[in-house]
Amino acid sequence: MREKMWIFYGVDNSTCLFSIWNQWCLYYAAVACLLFSPVRMDHACPSSCICAKDSGTVTCGDGEDTEVPGDIPEWTSTLILKGRNISTLQRGAFMSNGTELQMTTLSLSYNGIEAIEPYAFLGLPRLHVLDLSHNQLEYISARAFHGLLELRSLYLNHSILPPATEQLSNALNTQSLRNLHRLELAGNTLKSIPLLRLDMHNLHALVLINNSIESIGGGNVSMLYQQKRIRVYLDLNPFRCNCELEAFYYWLKNSSQCPDAGRLLCREPEAKRGVPVEKLREEDVDCMNENLEAVSYVFLGIVLALIGVVFLMVLYLNRRGIKRWLNNIRDACRDQMEVYHYRYEQDSDPRLANVAVEAPETSDRVVGGHGRQRVPGSAL
Fold first, then answer.
1. Are the C-beta atoms of residues 208 and 235 closer than 8 Å to each other?
2. Per-residue b/e over 217-256, b at no fewer than 16 CB within 10 Å?
């Protein structure tokens, strides 16, 4: 009986030891996984950045990094990157480990960004504010802003270089920006509004200050009339105050959609330089008067041309009489020249001079320009 008890006890004890051994193995395996697995902690902050978890703000200042930090915390609501060397925003640049961020504000000003590739802002479905001001954009993909369905404000001040002007128009005219409320494009040397359609956006403010806009065409003016809620800022643009400004001029006079209308000045022509666009006279931008003036000059040119043609025809029809008249004039001139020549020879001959002294009572008279006849009692 004791032997059986010992065997049973021994068996039970070995089973107990085996279970303890398994627990220790599992514990060490878990520790090893934690030490060697690349698990990112939510409280980790990217290098050269300052994180404020309470406000959800991550600020990354000057640095030598050429890419967006790849370890942005998931709790980030505001990300500020400034003074870095990010030349290109690549596809999915803000998708941290393939997960979407709950970021609402993204500031990328003063980073020397030159290109924005397609789907660069993928993974930011809740982004409301995007600031790309003061960069050097030469390339903007037509799908650069794809996926930003909740974007409310887009700032592109002093960022668009001439090569990217036409690309900007394609990038902005996308259904992804249908909820855009504010668009700022100041200081970009734009010559026209880069939006093909205003009704595809929900714009409340369009800032085009300090560009190169000389005139706004009738098509854009019609869109502005239809979008009553929008406010357009156009100060510091070199407006050409001529007939092409007519539709825009009447829009300024009849609408309150341009808050800085009183500061819009004419740059050309020279006679109207510095004159507020609002204070122009209607005849200054009246296309009818300008067209009539052009037509009058054309008509005057046609009349003068007809007079010249008639004159040439008269000369042609009377060419024989004109030729005969010219021959008569030529003969008369030749005879007169012969008389002058004969008198010159006579005055220059000393012998004739002596004869004239000895016989002052006689003189020679030229008859017909071909002979001499002495007439007594007459003087030269």
1. no
2. eeebbebbeebeebbbbbbbbebebbbbbbbbbebbeeee
Residues 151, 177: contact at Cβ < 8 Å?
Answer: yes
Cα–Cα distance for residue pair 108/103, rounded to 1 Å: 14
- The CB density around residue 289, as the number of other CB atoms within 10 Å, is 13
**CA-CA-CA-CA torsion sign (28, 30, 34, 36):** positive
Largest distance between two CA atoms of the chain: 202
Q: Is 252 helix (H, G, I), strand (E, B) or coil?
A: helix
- The model's confidence at residue 345, banded by pLDDT at 50, 70 and 90, is confident
Q: What is the pLDDT of residues 59-84, one digit of tens each?
A: 998 877 788 888 888 899 999 999 88
Query: Rounded distance, CA 275 to CA 264, Å?
Result: 9
Paired sense of beta strands 49-52 and 57-60, if any:
antiparallel
Q: Helical H runs in 209-318?
A: 218-226, 246-254, 287-317
Q: Over the range 30-56, which residues count as b (16 or more CB within 10 Å of their CB) and which as e? A: eeeeeeeeeeeeeeebbeebebeeeeb
Name the region of 97 (left: φ>0; alpha: ψ -120 to 50; beta: rest): left
Could you tell me the sign of the dihedral formed by the alpha carbons of 96, 100, 106, 110, in that order?
Answer: positive
Alpha-carbon distance of 362 to 96, in angstroms, equals 132
Tell me which DSSP letter residue 141 carries. -
Alpha-carbon distance of 92 to 214, in angstroms, equals 38
Which amino acid makes up residue 178? R
Distance between CA atoms of 158 and 189, rounded to whole angstroms?
Answer: 9
What's the CA gap between 203 and 205, in Å, rounded? 6
| Cα–Cα nearest to 380, from 349, 352, 338, 351 | 352
Contact 107, 131 (CB under 8 A): yes
Q: With bands split at pLDDT 50, 70 and 90, how would you rate the model's confidence at 22?
A: low
Distance CA 182, CA 204 (A): 6
162 is written with which tokens? 């001439």
The DSSP secondary-structure symbol of 192 reads S
Which contiguous run of DSSP H or E holds residue 13? helix 2-36
- Which H/E stretch holds residue 184? strand 182-184
